[in-house]
Amino acid sequence: MSTTMTVEEGTSTTVGEGTVDKGKSKQFEVGKVASSLKQIQWESSWRTTMLSYIDRNVIDNMETWQRAFNVKLFNNELSTLEKLKDRFPKIYKNDSCICCNLEKEDQVHMLTCPKNLIDIHSCRNKLINMLVSKMTTVACGDTCKNMCKTLETLKELHIPRDVSTWDADHLSFIDVMLELIPITVYDIVLQKVVMHDLADQIIDNVFNQFKLFLHTYIWKDRCTAVKKWETENGISNNKWKKKVRNETLDTTVTSQINNTDNNNAFNNTI
Where is this region: Disordered (predicted)? Predict the structure, then answer.
């Protein structure tokens, strides 16, 4: 028997037996996954997802688009082919990645597809270099340069041999790409700068830039490829998608009405 838990902003909880539902990043069926929940810096993860560290009353279009991408990635709501096939099964006959045609295109595959122009190893190197560069500039000068090796050996930033699998017990770099910030990364920064406010500033800046990097060099390239594929297959008309979805909903409602009528007729004969 599993237990469901909702993780509020900046919190984590230890619970009993169960499995994790990666489909809802803020709501988990938890058990042995509790150990990995405690490895996450939830406050920083949520703040950089919502861009809540921005203290201006008005945000620009770029920040609005970035927040929308962040929230959808965090909640597993990006319109991957897995999601599109589920929403429009009459239009999308399968959910295989159009770039490699090897795996179902869910969020993890979208981020780690071997056909991406920027592969997962380059993404990891980018994040580490951004952290070291920011620390060197803002906080501790040349003394931060040895952080590179420390971060490279960090188990929470390792890349699984098989990126299609996910270990609920331990964080990996895939979880970081899915917008979860490990406590160990935060603590390494905090040890160098001492002050929490400065550590927060560095983490916010670096992970915001890293998410922008993922959006620009992976998600946007993927969307361009999918739109081209949709056009070639005659499925780029949003009005058609809406029509098909409405027909599906009408069919579902009609079926439910017929089932109700049949049940009433059956009950009247008893």
Answer: 1-21
Count of other CB atoms within 10 angstroms of residue 196: 10
**What residue segments make up the domains of the chain, in order of their start?**
75-236
| Residue pLDDT, tens place only, 126-185 | 999 999 999 888 876 666 777 888 999 999 999 998 877 667 678 899 999 999 999 999
